[in-house]
Amino acid sequence: MAASRDQSDDINQEASKNCDIQLKVYYGLIRHDFCYSFTVFDLSVKEVWAFRHQFYTNCQSCPSSWLCEMLFTKVSDDGRVLIPILLRRTDCERGAVKVRIVPHIRDKDSLALFNVPPIER
Question: pTM score, two decimals?
Answer without folding.
Answer: 0.71
